[in-house]
Amino acid sequence: MPPKEPAPGPRFARTTEKGHGRVEHRSLESTVILTVHPKWPGLKQGFRVRRWGIRKGKAYEEVVHGITSRPPEKADAKRLLELVREHGRIENSLHYVRDVTLGEDACPVRRGSAPQVLAALRNVSVHLLAHVEADNHARAIRRLAARFHEAINLLASPL
User: Fold this and answer.
1) What pTM was estimated for this model as a whole?
2) Four-point Cα dihedral 68, 49, 87, 82, nearest 10
3) Of 4, 88, 140, 153, most Cβ neighbours within 10 A?
4) CA nearest to 141, candidates 106, 108, 100
5) What b/e string do you get for 102-114 counting C-beta neighbours within 10 Å, with b at 16 or more?
6) pLDDT for residue 48 is more than 90
7) In Å, how far are 1, 2, 58, 61, 86 from 55, measured between CA atoms?
8) Which residue from 49, 121, 115 is spatially nearest to 84, judged by alpha carbons?
9) Is the four-CA dihedral 123, 125, 126, 130 of positive or negative sign?
10) For residue 26, what is the enclosing H or E element?
11) φ, ψ dihedrals at 51, nearest 5°
12) Mean pLDDT calculated for residue range 127-149
């Protein structure tokens, strides 16, 4: 369990989510004290997110820090916590497609600029696959493999 936390308010928020056989708690504390530093133009808030719970029968706690250009009047602690959670969902879904569907982690290419070139090509692929009529990216890939003319038309279209 984390240390005693402040009461909910503009600088502190907490959530609890249950699902997938686990309970996860999240708390966010924000501060504007970092905004006085002249090397951080545009910085409006800093924050700390704590996540803790039980995953696969084991207790865990994670702490991450972040910064944002959103001022407190546009994003209090509760809103920041929502934005952090949404960012995680987007990252996880993109990572899943790139890693599992497109095999990024299994790729043996590790030297020079080739990994960055391949990452850029995977990003283009994800964008193009979003325009294919299919339930998911894997089905879109199979559809294009079976319908070569659709793949060529997709590459030639001005999306």
Assistant:
1) 0.59
2) -90
3) 140
4) 100
5) bebeeeeeeeeee
6) yes
7) 14, 16, 5, 10, 20
8) 49
9) positive
10) strand 22-31
11) -125, 135
12) 93
